[in-house]
Amino acid sequence: MNLPALLRHETVLALLVIIALATLAGLSDRFFTAENLLNQGRLMAEVGLVALGMTFVIVTGGIDLSVGSILGLTAILFGVFWQNVGMPLPVAMVAALASGTLAGVGNGLIITRFKVPPLIATLATLALYRGLAEGISQARSVRGYPEWFFFFGQGEILDVPVQLWVLAIATAICAVILGLTPFGRATYATGANEVAARFSGIRVDATKLWIYAGTGFLAALAAIIFVSRVTTTRSDMGTGLELDVITGVVLGGTSIFGGRGTIIGTALGLILIQALKNGLALSGVKGDGTIVVIGIVLIIAILVSAIVDRSRGG
Amino acid sequence: MTKLTVAAALCLGLMSGSAFAASAWTGGDDLPTNPLACDGTAAAPAAKPYDGGEPASAPDRKGKKITVVDIPKLIGIGYFNATSKGIQDAAAELGNVEAKTDGPTKANIDEQITFIDNYITSGVDGILFAANDPVAIAPVLKKALSKGINVVGYDANSTPDARQWFVNQAEFNGIAKSLIDNMAKEIGEDGSFAIVTSTFTTPNQARWIAEMAAYAEACHPKMKWLETVEAQEDNNLSFNQATTLINKHGDDLKGIFGMTSVATPASAEAVTQAGKCGSIAVVGLATPNAMKPYVEKDCVKTVVLWNPVDLGYAALQVMRAVADGTLKPGATSVKAGKLGDLQVINGSEILLGPPFSFTKENIGQFDF
Known about the structure:
The complex is a heterodimer of chains A (about 325) and B (about 375).
Chain A: H1 3-6, H2 9-27, H3 34-59, H4 67-83, H5 89-113, H6 118-137, H7 151-154, E1 156-157, E2 160-161, H8 162-180, H9 182-192, H10 194-199, H11 204-230, H12 241-251, H13 263-282, H14 287-313
Chain B: H1 2-16, E1 66-71, H2 78-94, E2 97-101, H3 109-122, E3 126-129, H4 138-146, E4 150-154, E5 165-168, H5 172-187, E6 192-197, H6 203-219, E7 224-230, H7 235-249, E8 253-258, H8 263-273, E9 281-285, H9 288-296, E10 302-305, H10 308-324, E11 333-335, E12 341-345, E13 349-351, E14 356-358
Parallel strand pairs in B: 1-2, 1-3, 3-4, 4-5, 5-13, 6-7, 6-8, 8-9, 9-10
Antiparallel strand pairs in B: 10-14, 11-12, 12-13
Helix pairs in contact in B: 2-10, 3-4, 5-6, 7-8
């Protein structure tokens, strides 16, 4: 273990997380309790799931602005499949997951087949999918789900919120895929130098397509958990989600230019943001103040990381 | 089939001589109406058992200092700044309540839920809310009740069992009476008017129109309804629809009702641009800021809404009464400081009172 290895972005971030947790625990005695921390896990599950997919997307040098709209659209479709089409609830869930994946495939096809920059492509589908959600729902909510369905969003297994298990398992799977498999290496190669990756025989387009589809799937999974947590379906669900997700991923050290980033970093970034939001609220800071602090932390984290990077390189 | 139903309903209505028919005016709904008495004497409230929730093992807060947090749909807009001011006024007057307003900067159900969740953990005594969604907010409010926190809603309700009381700013029949009375005052008992609404099926607007038809029939029978037009909640479309009404009906048209906060200023603008200020009255629901230019130019005489400062004031007074145990399930009224006794309606709702009319004299005092 030499010094440069210790000074990776993730290490800096882990230190920041520890400092933040310690400070916040000092500010409010209600912060560092098992109940509060588990409850925060429940609240961050949806953003966390989508952030996993977004990490892959940003590592390839892309971006997906449509995740919030996919969440809204699949939530609406889930409700419509169940109430209007009359599917049994489990079937509706599978159908909603399939629709979310399909929406992601749509993004991937526009980006790979027509060579549209991801920013433009997903900006378009951000509007398109949200428009579909609003059109299909006609501003009506779907309510009255059976009691057992609330298990996913409000239930617990071994005293830990159900969605936290889901998030943990998904995080482990994504970490393995990105860190240890040929697919993960193809993802990094695509982001680092797409042309070189193509000439090395990496199936760049297929990799991207899989990644956008996977992100769509995760957004749909988040949608079902969200609906279960709030017991209703609305077309404006997930509005602005993309910004929370991208903030977490970028804070986690994933380079917006591609080629660099880890799932661990994303997890740390999300934990830091959630801890700040919750801890500051508990110590009496109002909502607008919290946003300011998060903005400052984001800038500091990126600056520190850039300085460390430069000193390591030079 | 619809025609048959309407005809049947009309026959039935005529035979029984009551107002229980499909709404006489397009854009109303078919639910039974309940017009108020013409002179405004309050009807005896229909007896309905308390259907609100109860906090689990709440500590005795009688007379003790309590911390209350107010979480509106969003912060930073004039309307909720006004309710927040009312809450602070009441807190200052009571002296034993520490109240603060906090909430999301956009009307987002997820963020509002997170705010409430955090305040539950931080251990407040009371939560005031204006729900972004009546059902989505219910689980987190029930959680608050289960932790012994007093929960009172205002402006936008949740499902009744998720909170204790809800301060209702205005009943449908109260708004309807105020609109029709003001129009009758401006265009006379035999004037003709048209309505600009959002869509024929928008729940609140449909309810208001049905109540207006019933009240006009009972109290201003000679007033003539011409037609109702749809304008979504779209500024341009509202303006165009109002202009069409003016051109189509010519001198027959004496008044326009705006049923949304978009339709009312747009109708006023259409009347202004047609040079019909003074000959066509505009009465409607709208926020004061949008209407100030027209009211100051005397083009619009009355804007109907409720007073959001009073609404916030009443909400905190109710919260104090609940914490003190003076407002219990089954009560028929509650003392709300300078507002006097407020009536309990619909089981667990508290009625703020008759709607508020903004006129040239008072509109300058409001900023929302």
